[in-house]
Protein backbone atom coordinates (compact mmCIF):
# COMPACT_ATOMS: atom_id res chain seq x y z
CA UNK A 1 0.00 0.00 0.00
CA UNK A 2 2.89 2.36 0.71
CA UNK A 3 4.18 2.01 -2.86
CA UNK A 4 0.68 2.64 -4.26
CA UNK A 5 0.29 5.77 -2.15
CA UNK A 6 3.68 7.03 -3.28
CA UNK A 7 2.70 6.67 -6.92
CA UNK A 8 -0.59 8.47 -6.29
CA UNK A 9 1.34 11.23 -4.54
CA UNK A 10 3.47 11.58 -7.66
CA UNK A 11 0.34 12.09 -9.77
CA UNK A 12 -0.93 14.65 -7.27
CA UNK A 13 2.40 16.47 -7.46
CA UNK A 14 2.23 16.48 -11.26
CA UNK A 15 -1.29 17.90 -11.16
CA UNK A 16 -0.20 20.61 -8.73
CA UNK A 17 2.52 21.82 -11.12
CA UNK A 18 0.11 22.59 -13.96
CA UNK A 19 -0.36 26.34 -14.32
CA UNK A 20 -3.26 28.26 -15.91
CA UNK A 21 -3.18 27.99 -19.68
CA UNK A 22 -1.20 30.71 -21.41
CA UNK A 23 -3.62 31.47 -24.20
CA UNK A 24 -1.59 32.15 -27.31
CA UNK A 25 -4.86 32.44 -29.20
CA UNK A 26 -6.05 35.60 -27.45
CA UNK A 27 -5.06 37.68 -30.47
CA UNK A 28 -7.61 35.74 -32.50
CA UNK A 29 -11.17 37.04 -32.60
CA UNK A 30 -12.88 33.66 -32.93
CA UNK A 31 -13.56 31.82 -29.61
CA UNK A 32 -12.91 28.36 -31.05
CA UNK A 33 -9.60 29.48 -32.53
CA UNK A 34 -8.72 31.04 -29.18
CA UNK A 35 -9.33 27.70 -27.47
CA UNK A 36 -7.34 25.74 -30.06
CA UNK A 37 -4.51 28.27 -30.07
CA UNK A 38 -4.32 28.23 -26.31
CA UNK A 39 -4.37 24.45 -26.14
CA UNK A 40 -1.71 24.12 -28.84
CA UNK A 41 0.35 27.03 -27.48
CA UNK A 42 0.37 28.71 -30.87
CA UNK A 43 -1.11 31.77 -32.57
CA UNK A 44 -1.85 29.69 -35.68
CA UNK A 45 -4.07 26.79 -34.58
CA UNK A 46 -4.37 23.80 -36.91
CA UNK A 47 -5.86 20.32 -37.03
CA UNK A 48 -3.58 18.01 -38.98
CA UNK A 49 -3.42 14.92 -36.75
CA UNK A 50 -6.53 14.46 -34.62
CA UNK A 51 -7.29 11.28 -32.69
CA UNK A 52 -10.55 9.84 -31.40
CA UNK A 53 -9.92 7.80 -28.25
CA UNK A 54 -12.51 5.78 -26.33
CA UNK A 55 -12.06 4.01 -22.99
CA UNK A 56 -14.35 1.16 -21.97
CA UNK A 57 -14.79 -0.60 -18.61
CA UNK A 58 -17.53 -2.12 -16.47
CA UNK A 59 -18.51 -1.39 -12.88
CA UNK A 60 -19.06 -3.95 -10.15
CA UNK A 61 -22.25 -2.37 -8.82
CA UNK A 62 -24.05 -2.62 -12.17
CA UNK A 63 -24.77 -6.38 -12.00
CA UNK A 64 -26.41 -6.61 -8.54
CA UNK A 65 -28.52 -3.55 -9.37
CA UNK A 66 -29.61 -5.11 -12.68
CA UNK A 67 -28.80 -1.97 -14.58
CA UNK A 68 -29.72 -2.17 -18.24
CA UNK A 69 -27.28 -0.30 -20.51
CA UNK A 70 -28.80 1.95 -23.16
CA UNK A 71 -26.96 0.06 -25.92
CA UNK A 72 -25.38 -3.36 -26.30
CA UNK A 73 -21.77 -2.52 -25.43
CA UNK A 74 -20.47 -5.91 -26.54
CA UNK A 75 -21.88 -5.44 -30.03
CA UNK A 76 -20.64 -1.87 -30.13
CA UNK A 77 -17.09 -2.92 -29.20
CA UNK A 78 -17.18 -5.82 -31.64
CA UNK A 79 -18.24 -3.55 -34.49
CA UNK A 80 -15.59 -1.01 -33.56
CA UNK A 81 -12.80 -3.61 -33.47
CA UNK A 82 -13.96 -5.18 -36.72
CA UNK A 83 -14.19 -1.80 -38.41
CA UNK A 84 -17.89 -2.17 -39.21
CA UNK A 85 -19.39 0.29 -36.72
CA UNK A 86 -20.82 3.71 -37.40
CA UNK A 87 -18.03 5.17 -35.29
CA UNK A 88 -15.50 3.65 -37.71
CA UNK A 89 -17.20 5.24 -40.71
CA UNK A 90 -17.35 8.60 -38.96
CA UNK A 91 -13.67 8.39 -38.04
CA UNK A 92 -12.83 7.56 -41.66
CA UNK A 93 -14.92 10.46 -42.92
CA UNK A 94 -13.23 12.77 -40.40
CA UNK A 95 -9.76 11.51 -41.44
CA UNK A 96 -8.88 10.79 -37.84
CA UNK A 97 -7.22 7.99 -35.90
CA UNK A 98 -9.60 5.81 -33.87
CA UNK A 99 -8.39 4.02 -30.76
CA UNK A 100 -10.57 1.90 -28.47
CA UNK A 101 -9.06 0.84 -25.17
CA UNK A 102 -10.86 -1.92 -23.27
CA UNK A 103 -9.88 -1.52 -19.64
CA UNK A 104 -9.63 -5.11 -18.39
CA UNK A 105 -12.71 -6.40 -20.28
CA UNK A 106 -12.80 -9.66 -18.29
CA UNK A 107 -13.07 -7.92 -14.92
CA UNK A 108 -15.13 -5.21 -13.28
CA UNK A 109 -14.27 -2.72 -10.60
CA UNK A 110 -15.15 -3.65 -7.05
CA UNK A 111 -18.80 -3.06 -6.19
CA UNK A 112 -18.68 0.56 -5.06
CA UNK A 113 -21.84 0.04 -3.01
CA UNK A 114 -20.48 -2.93 -1.08
CA UNK A 115 -16.67 -2.73 -1.04
CA UNK A 116 -14.43 -0.23 0.71
CA UNK A 117 -13.91 1.49 -2.64
CA UNK A 118 -14.35 0.78 -6.33
CA UNK A 119 -10.66 1.30 -7.11
CA UNK A 120 -7.56 0.76 -5.04
CA UNK A 121 -4.77 3.30 -5.27
CA UNK A 122 -2.96 0.86 -7.56
CA UNK A 123 -6.04 0.57 -9.81
CA UNK A 124 -6.37 4.33 -9.97
CA UNK A 125 -2.72 4.97 -10.78
CA UNK A 126 -2.55 2.16 -13.34
CA UNK A 127 -5.68 3.36 -15.14
CA UNK A 128 -4.58 6.98 -15.22
CA UNK A 129 -1.17 5.96 -16.54
CA UNK A 130 -2.89 3.88 -19.22
CA UNK A 131 -4.86 6.93 -20.30
CA UNK A 132 -1.73 9.04 -20.37
CA UNK A 133 -0.08 6.60 -22.77
CA UNK A 134 -2.93 7.12 -25.23
CA UNK A 135 -1.62 10.62 -25.96
CA UNK A 136 1.29 10.25 -28.36
CA UNK A 137 3.63 12.93 -29.79
CA UNK A 138 2.32 14.76 -32.83
CA UNK A 139 -1.38 14.87 -31.93
CA UNK A 140 -2.92 18.30 -32.31
CA UNK A 141 -6.47 17.44 -31.20
CA UNK A 142 -7.75 14.70 -28.91
CA UNK A 143 -11.42 13.72 -29.04
CA UNK A 144 -12.20 11.39 -26.16
CA UNK A 145 -15.00 9.56 -24.38
CA UNK A 146 -15.64 6.72 -21.96
CA UNK A 147 -18.38 4.14 -21.55
CA UNK A 148 -19.29 0.82 -19.98
CA UNK A 149 -21.83 -1.03 -17.87
CA UNK A 150 -22.51 1.28 -14.93
CA UNK A 151 -20.33 4.08 -16.32
CA UNK A 152 -23.23 6.54 -16.90
CA UNK A 153 -24.42 6.16 -13.31
CA UNK A 154 -20.91 6.53 -11.88
CA UNK A 155 -20.34 9.63 -14.01
CA UNK A 156 -23.65 11.19 -12.99
CA UNK A 157 -22.85 10.50 -9.34
CA UNK A 158 -19.44 12.18 -9.65
CA UNK A 159 -21.05 15.19 -11.33
CA UNK A 160 -23.71 15.53 -8.65
CA UNK A 161 -21.14 15.04 -5.90
CA UNK A 162 -18.89 17.84 -7.16
CA UNK A 163 -21.83 20.18 -7.75
CA UNK A 164 -23.45 19.41 -4.38
CA UNK A 165 -26.55 18.06 -6.09
CA UNK A 166 -28.88 15.14 -5.41
CA UNK A 167 -30.37 12.62 -7.83
CA UNK A 168 -33.72 10.91 -8.30
CA UNK A 169 -31.95 7.92 -9.84
CA UNK A 170 -31.66 5.29 -7.10
CA UNK A 171 -28.30 3.93 -8.25
CA UNK A 172 -26.82 7.42 -8.61
CA UNK A 173 -28.18 8.49 -5.22
CA UNK A 174 -26.63 5.45 -3.53
CA UNK A 175 -23.28 6.13 -5.16
CA UNK A 176 -23.37 9.76 -4.01
CA UNK A 177 -24.01 8.60 -0.44
CA UNK A 178 -21.24 6.00 -0.69
CA UNK A 179 -18.74 8.67 -1.73
CA UNK A 180 -19.06 10.18 1.77
CA UNK A 181 -18.47 13.72 0.60
CA UNK A 182 -15.10 13.04 -1.04
CA UNK A 183 -13.96 15.09 -4.02
CA UNK A 184 -11.39 14.85 -6.79
CA UNK A 185 -9.29 11.71 -7.14
CA UNK A 186 -10.50 10.41 -3.78
CA UNK A 187 -14.07 10.44 -5.09
CA UNK A 188 -12.94 8.84 -8.35
CA UNK A 189 -11.35 5.97 -6.44
CA UNK A 190 -14.39 5.64 -4.18
CA UNK A 191 -17.14 5.33 -6.81
CA UNK A 192 -15.47 5.71 -10.24
CA UNK A 193 -14.10 3.22 -12.73
CA UNK A 194 -11.12 2.29 -14.84
CA UNK A 195 -12.46 4.13 -17.89
CA UNK A 196 -13.08 7.41 -16.04
CA UNK A 197 -9.62 7.27 -14.48
CA UNK A 198 -8.07 6.62 -17.91
CA UNK A 199 -9.99 9.59 -19.33
CA UNK A 200 -8.58 11.78 -16.54
CA UNK A 201 -5.08 10.54 -17.37
CA UNK A 202 -5.55 11.33 -21.06
CA UNK A 203 -6.70 14.86 -20.25
CA UNK A 204 -3.61 15.46 -18.10
CA UNK A 205 -1.25 14.05 -20.73
CA UNK A 206 -2.88 16.12 -23.47
CA UNK A 207 -2.36 19.28 -21.41
CA UNK A 208 1.33 18.48 -21.01
CA UNK A 209 1.57 17.78 -24.78
CA UNK A 210 -0.11 21.07 -25.83
CA UNK A 211 -3.01 19.14 -27.31
CA UNK A 212 -6.55 20.55 -26.93
CA UNK A 213 -9.24 18.06 -25.96
CA UNK A 214 -12.86 17.54 -26.98
CA UNK A 215 -14.75 15.28 -24.57
CA UNK A 216 -18.34 14.17 -24.58
CA UNK A 217 -21.23 13.51 -22.29
CA UNK A 218 -21.49 12.76 -18.59
CA UNK A 219 -18.22 10.82 -18.54
CA UNK A 220 -16.33 13.80 -19.95
CA UNK A 221 -17.95 16.24 -17.56
CA UNK A 222 -17.29 13.96 -14.58
CA UNK A 223 -13.61 13.65 -15.51
CA UNK A 224 -13.28 17.43 -15.80
CA UNK A 225 -14.93 18.05 -12.44
CA UNK A 226 -12.70 15.47 -10.77
CA UNK A 227 -9.57 17.13 -12.18
CA UNK A 228 -10.77 20.67 -11.49
CA UNK A 229 -11.29 19.67 -7.85
CA UNK A 230 -7.54 18.96 -7.76
CA UNK A 231 -6.44 21.94 -9.88
CA UNK A 232 -8.82 24.55 -11.29
CA UNK A 233 -6.61 25.03 -14.36
CA UNK A 234 -6.80 21.44 -15.58
CA UNK A 235 -9.85 21.99 -17.76
CA UNK A 236 -8.55 25.05 -19.60
CA UNK A 237 -7.61 23.06 -22.72
CA UNK A 238 -10.88 21.08 -22.83
CA UNK A 239 -14.25 21.61 -24.45
CA UNK A 240 -17.36 19.55 -23.88
CA UNK A 241 -20.20 18.37 -26.09
CA UNK A 242 -23.22 16.09 -25.81
CA UNK A 243 -24.33 17.36 -22.38
CA UNK A 244 -25.76 20.59 -21.02
CA UNK A 245 -23.94 21.96 -18.00
CA UNK A 246 -24.74 25.66 -17.87
CA UNK A 247 -21.01 26.45 -18.16
CA UNK A 248 -20.41 28.45 -21.32
CA UNK A 249 -16.64 28.25 -20.82
CA UNK A 250 -16.73 24.50 -21.40
CA UNK A 251 -18.94 24.04 -24.44
CA UNK A 252 -18.05 23.84 -28.11
CA UNK A 253 -20.02 26.37 -30.09
CA UNK A 254 -20.86 23.85 -32.80
CA UNK A 255 -24.15 22.05 -33.33
CA UNK A 256 -24.16 18.33 -32.49
CA UNK A 257 -26.49 16.11 -34.58
CA UNK A 258 -29.53 14.78 -32.72
CA UNK A 259 -28.31 11.19 -33.06
CA UNK A 260 -24.97 12.03 -31.46
CA UNK A 261 -25.75 10.69 -27.99
CA UNK A 262 -26.96 7.33 -29.31
CA UNK A 263 -23.53 5.68 -29.16
CA UNK A 264 -20.23 6.45 -27.42
CA UNK A 265 -17.91 8.68 -29.41
CA UNK A 266 -20.50 9.75 -31.98
CA UNK A 267 -20.77 13.33 -30.72
CA UNK A 268 -17.04 14.11 -30.81
CA UNK A 269 -16.60 12.16 -34.06
CA UNK A 270 -19.23 14.35 -35.73
CA UNK A 271 -17.52 17.50 -34.50
CA UNK A 272 -13.98 16.78 -35.76
CA UNK A 273 -14.69 17.62 -39.44
CA UNK A 274 -16.87 20.56 -38.41
CA UNK A 275 -14.08 21.94 -36.26
CA UNK A 276 -11.49 21.36 -38.99
CA UNK A 277 -13.71 23.21 -41.47
CA UNK A 278 -14.14 26.05 -38.99
CA UNK A 279 -10.38 26.38 -38.62
CA UNK A 280 -9.85 26.51 -42.38
CA UNK A 281 -12.59 29.06 -43.00
CA UNK A 282 -11.40 31.30 -40.19
CA UNK A 283 -7.66 31.04 -40.78
CA UNK A 284 -6.45 34.66 -40.37
CA UNK A 285 -3.34 33.96 -42.45
CA UNK A 286 -5.43 33.38 -45.58
CA UNK A 287 -6.89 36.47 -47.21
CA UNK A 288 -10.55 36.18 -48.11
CA UNK A 289 -11.59 37.48 -51.55
CA UNK A 290 -14.83 38.66 -49.95
CA UNK A 291 -12.86 41.24 -47.97
CA UNK A 292 -10.91 42.57 -50.96
CA UNK A 293 -11.98 45.70 -52.72
CA UNK A 294 -13.17 45.27 -56.28
Number of helices: 11
CATH topology: Rossmann fold
| Unreliable residue stretches | none
The secondary structure category is alpha/beta
CATH class: Alpha Beta
Distance between the termini: 73 Å
Strand order of the largest sheet: 2-1-3-4-5
Mass-distribution shape: globular
Order of helices and strands: HHEHHEHEHHHHEHEH
The overall number of domains is: 1
Percentage of β-strand residues? 5-15%
Overall number of strands: 5
Annotated CATH architecture:
3-Layer(aba) Sandwich
User: Into which percent range does the helicity of residues fall?
Assistant: 40-55%
Q: Profile the largest sheet.
A: 5 strands, parallel
User: How confident is the prediction overall: mean pLDDT?
Assistant: 90
> From the alpha-carbon coordinates, what is the Rg to the nearest angstrom?
19 Å
What does this protein structure show overall?
This protein has 294 residues and is of the alpha/beta class. It has one domain (2-10, 48-283): Nicotinate-nucleotide-dimethylbenzimidazole phosphoribosyltransferase (CobT), large domain (Rossmann fold, 3-Layer(aba) Sandwich), CATH 3.40.50. It is built from eleven helices and five strands; from the N terminus they run ααβααβαβααααβαβα. The protein has a five-stranded parallel sheet with strand order 2-1-3-4-5, sandwiched between helices. α10 links the parallel β4 and β5 (238-241). α4 packs parallel to α11, α6 runs antiparallel to α8 (184-191) and α8 packs across α10. The mean pLDDT is 90.
Amino acid sequence: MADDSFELNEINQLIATIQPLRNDGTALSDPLLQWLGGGQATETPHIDHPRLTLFSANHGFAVPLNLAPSINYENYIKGCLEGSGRINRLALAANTDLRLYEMDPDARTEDALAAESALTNADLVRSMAYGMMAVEPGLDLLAAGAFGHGSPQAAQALIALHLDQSSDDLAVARLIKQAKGKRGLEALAQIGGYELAALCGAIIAARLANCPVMIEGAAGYAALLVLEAENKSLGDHCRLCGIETGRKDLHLDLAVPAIANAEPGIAVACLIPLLRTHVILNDPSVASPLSQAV
